[in-house]
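Following up on my earlier thread - several people asked me to post the actual chain instead of describing it. Fair enough. Here it is, all 330 residues.
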Amino acid sequence: VLRNTQWVTGVVVFTGDETKIMMNAGETPSKRSRIERMMNYQVMSQFALLFALCLLSAILGGVYYSRANSFQALFIVPFETSSGKSAPLYGFLTFWTALILYQTVVPISLYVTIEVVKSFQAYFINQDMDMYYAPAERRCVPKSWNLSDDLGQVEYIFSDKTGTLTQNVMIFRQCTIRGRVYGEIVGDDEPDRAVELRRAMDTRIEQTFGAPYLFRQSETATFLDTSVYDDLQTDNTQARAIFEFFTVLAVCHTVISSVPDPAHPHVLEYKAQSPDEAALVSTARDVGFAFLRRDKDRVYCNFRGQDHVFQLLATLEFTSARKRMSVIVR
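Reply from S.P.:
Thanks for posting it. Predicted structure:
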């Protein structure tokens, strides 16, 4: 806000034809590939050559037809000479005769040949093992025959910061509760250590809860730290803070749960609006605070082997101003 100023000088730029709407109002650029544009130019050139040859043949035919002594006596039978045709009419008929004779000048089969070549190139792209995605067992599938033409013209690749060329996967590894950090960092190159920590977590959960926690998915668990159960067994402020921390993770969200296999009702699958929510709720489940399902205004959970039901009174959605999400439950 400009204040305490008697006068202001302003300059208006990008007006008239330089405005954004006018700059974007031009003709739509052609989507044809370079080889298609070259083929169209070649075919049009051949048509022009064919027209010139037919026109030249018609003119020469009409001229020589008018010379009875030199042309008619040598090349035209008496029946034709006695038909009474004029030179312009003979030239007109010669134009169409030459068009039929010279039509092979235009390479119509060129388009068919190019389409066959593109089909083979698309097959090679599909069979290329360098573009095979092993985790999904999926090959590269060309959606357009022009793909091989366009790939040869790629010079620069521009990407924004929204994850166009990245995989948006969130993994919960560590957390801090009342100043204490829980969770051990295990690298992707340490599979044996990760398996050992998961087994230790399973054993510690069974000792703490008195029975195996069926909702835990040990194979995919990323939060690995047995000390959290040592603090949970104590009766102090830290234990209550841990309990409240994972209770919030299991209740404050908009995740929808499902059971993919009815034969295994304890295997839960979470569907969330963002990978952040799914990672938080999944970690709470693997620790022992599982979100089971929601029914209208009820949220059903299982904490350390005991069922809990929360009545959802209100949900405050995440906004850029608050930078958080909140729920009010009873």
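The first helix runs from residue 20 to 23. That should answer part of your original question.
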